[in-house]
Design a protein that fits this description.
Elements lengths: L13 E8 L11 H14 L10 E5 L2 H4 L4 H5 L11 E4 L3 H13 L5 E8 L6 H4 L16 H14 L5 H14 L10 E3 L2 E2 L9 E9 H7 L4 E10 L13 H10 L8 E3 L5 H10 L7 E2 L4 H4 L6 H14 L5 E8 L5 E8 L6
Parallel strand pairs: 2-3, 2-4, 9-10, 9-11
Antiparallel strand pairs: 1-7, 1-8, 4-7, 5-6, 8-12, 11-12
Helix pairs in contact: 4-12, 6-10, 7-10
Length: 353
Amino acid sequence: MPSAPQTQTPARRVAIVAYARSATRPGAEELSEVETLMPVLHEVLARTGLRTGDMDFTCSGSSDYLAGRAFSFTMALDGVGAWPPISESHVETDGAWALYEAWVKILTGAADTALVYAYGTSSAGRLRDVLSRQLDPYYTAPLWPDSVSLAALQAQTLIDDGRTDEAELAAIGARSRADAGLEQREHGEYIVRPLRAGDCPPVGDGAAAVVLAAGDRARDLCERPAWIRGMDHRIEAHGLGVRDLTDSPSTRLAARRAGAFDRPLDTAELHAPFASQEVVLRRALTLDSRVRVNPSGGALADNPMMAAGLVRLGEAAARIHRGASDRALAHATSGPCLQQNLVAVLEGESDER
């Protein structure tokens, strides 16, 4: 049998030193990518005293397909600034994967600082239908199953397997909204059984940004950096029919590779847009009552597409920055029913240098 994967310890220390995000807006406001991004970029840079030209690397995450425009990310670069020229890259997915690329860039020594940002314009089309286009193009996508219907399939599988029930899902939704400071509301009617309105995320447009820095540079820019102790991402099989929807082995493997199981955690920011997905992730990550899950409210309370995963990393880092957490896990997902998963472990400063 192959041996269990070992935790990878980076030779170079990299930290999240600043984080900012926009409020999630309903699409009726129809702000452009630049109008959405500029306030967020100005805020995150102001936290460090840096300018965009001071960054060794810039990486963004978004979806042209979601925006409904080819190469929309190039227009968003106007929010960063066209001069002086920058070293730039883009990932066609959630900004958490842009952060991963920037982290690797710094680990190689090719950069000491990086600006990472992400934005999403869910209002550009019918989100539930648009997301169906990421499914298997031969067997699944032609059936046009929307994202909520697929999440409901996963939720019903969990209920049939005895791993949750509708009362637990309702409690997760209520807790998420309370932690986010939102007004409590009725759990609502079924959208797709067994998911009710309170089990599903709100739809809106938004953006987020973080700044990464290495070693002593991170300490210069932030009083208490959130050090990335490990990060990894894995993917499930594309075909939903060959997966166990009640479990997430890719999350478990990514967490093991990131070092999440090496020592106790105190915080977990989980990218679980549907209440049932928090049930799956808690089990995959063996999170118990000692771990504060989604103190920000999580994606169930606020889910800006293409930025929600980066927000989880930013919120975990922000808790470390202000001393509310010492060791936090941040998780991001992409695709239907937790298909692809990224896990990072963040820690506050220690005596180790």
